[in-house]
Every structure is written in structure tokens, then in C-alpha cells.
């Protein structure tokens, strides 16, 4: 495998408020990388920095060897990095189909819209039945699936998911993680923010623990399971 995304000595935040401090991380192509750690320690901010949504004070981000940290967010999406943010952030008065089609607004994705729709409906069959239903009438799990589906419509090479299971019932979380696991097994590169370390350990190829804006630990799920002191210290588990 090759490194697809490389984050080097990154310092970033919101104006004068620095959140990430000298953080370095490599993500290999075709893997699922999970980011875990306490609330407020930089997991979501890291995804936003990769997407070009927060101020980068130092360091650089490279996609397949090309520096992208100076690009606008729309240009980063065009390069193939897709960010599915925390919550669903759907257009509530639009139908499921209309929300999905919003993910194919770029010319390259628009040309493949029918193909991508079929792929989304195959992966998330419930959305095929709901495609003419307005987003505001969906359940929480269905809205989350529409958010993931809209991200897949962009034809991106890297899919970043920010806590896709947040606030959902356990049975719906199982369904969401079946989808994430299918994406992983398909060879897509996935970056997953998750507070549930056990869930992350079950599914991820690599896990990185963020603490106070830096990487406190990195390894595999099996290695994390063998370090209960990490779970207790950082996650209270």
C-alpha cells in the first residue's frame, strides 16, 4: 500500500484558538483509519483542516504527494476528499433523491450520476424506497444514511466520516457500521472519527488516539485492545 494522505507537523484551529499542535499522520490507500479520543481534543477539527474549513497556522497536507492545504474547500472536494460532517446537515425540504444529487454537483461526478445513484441504492437499499420522501420526515438513521450516500455521490477517493453513529439507537448503529465495513472491504480509503473505541477497534486497520491536539498513540485494533490503560485514561472505558 502507498500513503495517499500525509499530514505533516500540522498546527491549526479557529483564528487565534489553536486546536491541533504539530500533528503528523499518514493514511494509506485503501485502509480505514479511525480517530478516537476525548471530546474537544481535535478529531473533528482535523477533518475540517483536511477539508480546508479551518485556519492552518503551520505544517502541510499532501494528497498523493500534492500539497492541498492552500486550496479552497471546493477544490479539495474536486481533488477527491469528501467530508461527511457530524450530524446529517441535509436540506430538510428536499427529497432524498434531491439531497443525493447535491453530492454530484461537480462536473466529473455529474457525468457519473446515474451510476453513482445505483451504487448508493445498492449499498443503502432503504434509500431507494425513500427517494421521493422529504428529508425532514426521515428517521435519524435514515438521515445519516442519506448523508453518507450524498458523500459517495461525489466519486471521491477519500471518504471522511465524522461520528456517523452519534445519537443513534444501537440497532441503527449496527446498520451504519455494516455500511462502513462494506466501504472498507471495497477498497475505499476511509477516515472515521469515533468516540466508541470498541467499535473502532473492531473495524479499523489503523487507530490513532488524539489528545490535546496531537497524536498520543497509534496502532491496530488488537494492539488497542491490549492497552486497557489507554482506554481508561483517555476515554474512561
What can you see in these coordinates?
With 237 residues, the protein is an alpha/beta fold. The protein has a domain at 1-80 and 195-237: 3-Layer(aba) Sandwich (Rossmann fold), CATH 3.40.50. Helices cover 38% and strands 28% of the residues. It has helices at residues 43-50, 73-79, 96-101, 107-110, 113-123, 125-130, 140-152, 170-185, 197-203, 221-225, 228-235, and strands at residues 3-14, 17-28, 32-36, 55-63, 66-67, 81-84, 158-162, 189-193, 206-211, 214-219. The two termini are 33 Å apart.
Topology:
Layout: E1 3-14, E2 17-28, E3 32-36, H1 43-50, E4 55-63, E5 66-67, H2 73-79, E6 81-84, H3 96-101, H4 107-110, H5 113-123, H6 125-130, H7 140-152, E7 158-162, H8 170-185, E8 189-193, H9 197-203, E9 206-211, E10 214-219, H10 221-225, H11 228-235
Parallel strand pairs: 3-8, 3-9, 6-7, 7-8
Antiparallel strand pairs: 1-2, 1-4, 4-5, 9-10
Features:
237 residues; 4-stranded antiparallel beta sheet; globular; alpha/beta; Rossmann fold; 6-stranded mixed beta sheet
Structure summary:
The chain has eleven helices and ten strands. The chain has 237 residues and is of the alpha/beta class.
Name the strands of the widest sheet in spatial order: 6-7-8-3-9-10
Estimate percent helicity: 25-40%
CATH architecture of one domain: 3-Layer(aba) Sandwich
Q: How much of the sequence is in beta strands?
A: 25-35%
Shape: globular
First-to-last CA distance: 33 Å
Rg, Cα atoms, Å: 17 Å
How is the main sheet built? Answer: 6 strands, mixed
Q: Quick one: CATH superfamily of one domain?
A: P-loop containing nucleotide triphosphate hydrolases
The assigned structural class equals: alpha/beta
Task: Encode the helix/strand succession as letters.
Answer: EEEHEEHEHHHHHEHEHEEHH
**Average pLDDT over all residues:** 92
Q: How many H/I helical runs?
A: 11
The counted number of beta strands is: 10
Amino acid at each position: 500500500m502507498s500513503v495517499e494522505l500525509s499530514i505533516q507537523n500540522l498546527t491549526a484551529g479557529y483564528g487565534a484558538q489553536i486546536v491541533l499542535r504539530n500533528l503528523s499522520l499518514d493514511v494509506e490507500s485503501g485502509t480505514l483509519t479511525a480517530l478516537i479520543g476525548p471530546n474537544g481534543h481535535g478529531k473533528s477539527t482535523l477533518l475540517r483542516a483536511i477539508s480546508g474549513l479551518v485556519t492552518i497556522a503551520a505544517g502541510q497536507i499532501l494528497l498523493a504527494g500534492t500539497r492541498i492545504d492552500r486550496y479552497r474547500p471546493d477544490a479539495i472536494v474536486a481533488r477527491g476528499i469528501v467530508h461527511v460532517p457530524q450530524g446529517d446537515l441535509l436540506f430538510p425540504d428536499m427529497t432524498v433523491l434531491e439531497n443525493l444529487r447535491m453530492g454530484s454537483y461537480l462536473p466529473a461526478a455529474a457525468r457519473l450520476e446515474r451510476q453513482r445513484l445505483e451504487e448508493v441504492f445498492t449499498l443503502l437499499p432503504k434509500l431507494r424506497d425513500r427517494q421521493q420522501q422529504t428529508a425532514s420526515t426521515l428517521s435519524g438513521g435514515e438521515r445519516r444514511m442519506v448523508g453518507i450516500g450524498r458523500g459517495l455521490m461525489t466519486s471521491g477517493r477519500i471518504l471522511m466520516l465524522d461520528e456517523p453513529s452519534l445519537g443513534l439507537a444501537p440497532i441503527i448503529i449496527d446498520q451504519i457500521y455494516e455500511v462502513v465495513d462494506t466501504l472498507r472491504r471495497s477498497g475505499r480509503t476511509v477516515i472515521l472519527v469515533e468516540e466508541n473505541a470498541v467499535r473502532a477497534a473492531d473495524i479499523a486497520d489503523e487507530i490513532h488516539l488524539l489528545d490535546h491536539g496531537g497524536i498520543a498513540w497509534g496502532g491496530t485494533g488488537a494492539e488497542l485492545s491490549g492497552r486497557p490503560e489507554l482506554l481508561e485514561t483517555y476515554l474512561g472505558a
